[in-house]
């Protein structure tokens, strides 16, 4: 058998590792840092018209100032449901309603809460690293199987293993950098 038959799909591994980073960024966006962000309410679902609906499909979400998120609810009948969903979500923000506009004042974070949030961010980052390492293992398994089936030489095996390790190191470093930036943002007063 020739050594040309085995070709590790590094593009697929890269895409899947990028997915782990993207997922981490989404999780980080939902962490409250004391600064207003529309991402804060993205995970909240409202029981609207008989089905669970994201808030941004029921109104316009704006951030008019650094410590305020507003939601201009399109259907007046939905205002109380949106308000209740926010209260029940556990994000720790007390909504204030003015007609069809719901205002979410973002309180300052105390030192203890900031430390808790940095730990939560650390856990999210660790999950992302585990995902990247699992993808590394998948790649290494493919390489070992190819070697076992004599599809590649030992030199090729070493080459592909180095490629996978290089990709893994790159994405683990990205997770660490993203975490550092998020923790700095959380601790910033």
Task: Kindly describe this structure.
The chain has 2 domains: 10-28 and 110-187, Topoisomerase I, Chain A, domain 4; 35-105, Gyrase A, domain 2 (2-Layer Sandwich), CATH 3.30.1360.40. It is 54% helix and 15% strand. The protein has 4 helices and 6 strands; from the N terminus they run αββββαββαα. It has helices at residues 10-29, 79-88, 111-148, 154-187, and strands at 45-48, 51-54, 59-65, 68-73, 96-98, 101-105. It starts with 9 loop residues before the first helix and ends with a helix.
Question: Which features does this protein show?
Answer:
Gyrase A, domain 2, Ribosome_recyc_fac, 2 domains, Ribosome_recyc_fac_dom, two-stranded antiparallel sheet, RRF_sf, cytoplasm, protein biosynthesis, single chain, 4 helices, 4-stranded antiparallel beta sheet, 6 strands
